Amino acid sequence: MIINYEKLTSLIVKAMKEQAAEAHTDKAEVDISGGVDSAAVAALACKAFGPENVIGVYSSINSSVESGLYAQVVADKFGFKLVRLNLAYIFHQIVSQVKDEFERLDISWPDAKENPTVFGGFRSCLRAPIGRFVNRAYGGGIRQGTGNRDEDELLRFYQKGGDGEVDCNWIEGLFKSEVWELAEYLGVPQEIIDAKPTPDLWGTGDKHNDEDELKEISGVSLTYTRPDSSMGTIEWVIRENDKRGIVDGLLEFEPVEDLEYTPEQQEIVSAVRKMEKATRHKATLPPTLSREYLVGMKVVK
Question: Would you state the CATH architecture of domain 5-198?
Fold first, then answer.
């Protein structure tokens, strides 16, 4: 829950400006999805740099009609320029070539309907270099991240080479509920605040949503907290982890049966533990064999 909107906004704007100053730039780029997170970040970037120095990129790859409309609504509201791209042809061309190569090599090809996250992940990753290119072409600003605490901290519900390919993430410390609160304070249009969160990556033209996809991945109901409503399970488990270390801290190896939670809560903890461990590589540098280790093992000198 946000207790001082003005100070929070000031802290984020200050951090944006300081990073940009160190990089000798006064520009920013934001991948605009049509969702509340990127809308809030774009609004903050406009406060930090002025809308004339912010470039937004909306890349459709068989995306929903609503996402494109919402992206433009955000750009119109805050006054930044929005590059609108249709990458569907490029996406399908690459997929087709890879499929041909799989057939040539006699490798089984995944069915798109049965494996939507495989192709959805590629959509996310394809957008990243496009956003980076637009950013460089616009003058080389700071590529702003848009991940919140619910999605990025324990679940890491993002693509490492996609929406995770950014230069900063100044809202990562905020729960999704607080992003909604901040978005309203910043003047993000209400229809975007009210919309159900979706990755919009399955290319079906309709809006599958975050919570359904998370349930499919985890097998349990992982839900957000809407402002002025009961606490969702994602925020609950993160707050419990803050207090007790039940996922990645002191009690991460404690049997869930000994944690004195209800059976439903135990299922949430168990599922989030699995997701956290499976995605931990996203939060750390790629592992290496250091030069010191190789020298110590007497394989190089």
Answer: 3-Layer(aba) Sandwich (3.40)
Edge-first strand listing for the sheet containing 54-60? 81-86, 54-60, 28-31, 142-144
- What is the rounded distance in angstroms from the CA atom of residue 200 to the CA atom of residue 62? 9
Provide the residue ranges of all domains of the chain, joining segments of one domain with +: 5-198, 209-301
**Residue 40 CB contacts under 8 Å (≥ 6 apart), including other chains:** 146, 171, 179, 182, 183, 186, 188
Whole-prediction pTM: 0.94
Give the pLDDT confidence of 218-266 residue by residue, as tens digits.
999 999 999 889 999 999 999 999 999 999 999 999 999 999 999 999 9
Q: Chain centroid to CA 99: how far? A: 28
pLDDT-based confidence at 1, cuts 50/70/90?
A: very high
